[in-house]
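FIELD: query
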Amino acid sequence: MDLLKADVFEKLRPLLSAEAAAEAPGAGVEAADLEQAVWVRLLESGPRDPDPDPTGRARWLRRAVRAEARRARRRARREIPYGVTPAQTGGAPEDVLLHGEETRALRSAVARLPGRCPELMKALLSPRDLTYREIAGELGISQGSLGPVRSRCLGCLRRMLAAEVAAPGLWGKER
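FIELD: result
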C-alpha cells in the first residue's frame, strides 16, 4: 500500500468503524463485512484520496457505508437458503396470487392520488430504498415538507382504499 493510501486508511478507520457499526444491524450484516466492502470500494476508486477536505471525506464515507448497507439489504431479500427451491419460497400459489392482486390494487390506487402524491408514494415504495434527502432532491421539494405531504397522501390513500374495500362492521358483521 502506498503512503497516500496508508495515510487515508489511518484517518478514515475510526469513522468507518463507527459508521459500519451503526448501519450493520439494520442491514442484517456484520459490521466488519460492511467495513470491508467500503474499503474495497475505496481501493477500487483509484490511488487518490476520495476527497481532500476532511468534512467531504466524512460525507463520502457515510454515503459509501449507507450504499453498501442498502446493497446488503437488497442482497438479503433476494437470497434463498440452501435446500429450498424457488417454488417453495413463495408459499402456496393462492397466497402468491393474492399478494400480487394486493400489490396491483395498491399501485392502481397510488396512481389515482391527486397532486404530487403519486410521485411521492412511488418514491417511497421504490425498491431503491431512497432516503428522505434523496426523495426530496428527486422531487424538487424541501426535505422538511416531505413528512406533512406524506401524511396527507397516506390519509388520502387510506380513505380511497377504505371506500373500495368494505370494512367489517362491529362484532365481525360485514356491511
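FIELD: remark
Helices lie at 3-27, 31-44, 54-78, 86-89, 93-111, 117-124, 132-139, 146-164.
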